[in-house]
Design a protein that fits this description.
This protein has about 400 residues and is an alpha/beta fold. The chain has 2 domains: about 5-45 and about 290-385, Aspartate Aminotransferase, domain 1; about 60-285, Type I PLP-dependent aspartate aminotransferase-like (Major domain) (Aspartate Aminotransferase, domain 2). Helix content is about 40%, strand content about 15%. The longest helix is centred in the last third of the chain and has 23 residues, at about 290-310. It is globular, with a radius of gyration of 21 Å. It binds pyridoxal-5'-phosphate (PLP). Pyridoxal-5'-phosphate (PLP) binds near residues 99, 128, 178, 236 and 238.
Amino acid sequence: MVHLSPGMRSSDPYPFEELDHRKAAALAAGRPIVDFGVGDPREETPAFIREALKGAIDATSSYPRAAGLQELRAAIAAWVERRFDARLDPDVHILPTMGAKEPIFHLAQSLLDPAGGKHLVTVTTPGYTIPERGARFAGGDVARLSLTEPNGFLPDLDAVEASTWDRTAILWLNYPNNPTGATAPLDFLRRAADHSRAHDVLLASDEAYCELFFDGEPPASVLQTGDLTNVLAFHTLSKRSSMTGFRSGFIAGDPELIAAMKALRPSVGVTPQEFVQRASIAAWSDEGHVEELRAVYARKRKLFLDLFASRGVRVAASEATFYLWVVVPTPTTSLDWSLHLLERADVIVAPGSFFGPDGEGYVRMAMVPTIEECERAAEALDGVLGAGV
Ligand SMILES: Cc1ncc(COP(=O)(O)O)c(C=O)c1O
């Protein structure tokens, strides 16, 4: 028998595997399933980005350098300045990564220090599971802060005890939030950064969805808070440019940490391939395709918001991202309602309980199927909801 590490042993199956299982069974039975369960966009990667990738494949290939291409870091710094009005030095503040998931998972390995009293990773719940998984693999413990409707889906940082802050190595925030679609005001991010600095905690801000917004102000970033000490932002092209398969993103923030990461990451080998980096330069340098993408998601969003409003089903938060956080309208669990929708409407949604106990009472709809599929699903859902749920 293989002796597995505690991180591996304690790991629950990735919840979506279960959903994939059920979807496979329904598809095998020949049913026209529309899948809103997993947040993998089905939109095409814009042609100019694909062309940039093709044009960058050279006859020889070498290991990409951990710092990434200077041109890519410059393109990222230019985007950050346009988008957040924040000036970063491409050489000291920015590091290209293989999307956001990879550095999110790895971060705890660089920061946890049980012997030094810093063994805790604080996350928000319901939430994206990767920060927690990364913490467990690094041998750390996890503290959870609830995101609920009464607290506006913002954790109550003042309610966290000083002893918890002192043991915390990393505070994870994710706005715009997966799964709730909630956003956080800049002032809240500023307070979180101040709290973190005061307790020698790193504020890790996962901003993977910051470009998928609809009404009102574009979502805020920790990069706008003025002081990057003890602050790290995580960005990706996966959602902004429909490039999940490319694996390209960056981290930006505290120069000391960026320098430490630059030194560590050659051992891990996680810098994107140079042709992906060249395609990424094209993607970060263009806003037109992002505006078009927002319009596509806005259309899908309106379709479902109108449908749910007409059937008296409430949608909470959901100000940004391509997620809708839908309140389960009957006295049943989120899993049971999801199964009901799968059986009656051929629609897959993710039960809120998959994202932690505070997710019970909601389901998450990822508006990633094509607009035609969304229209078909909306019609089927309308029929089911009209029949008394
Ligand atoms: C909250 C959040 N952060 C980060 C990611 C990772 O994105 P990627 O690794 O594709 O950049 C995801 C992906 O679904 C996500 O939902």
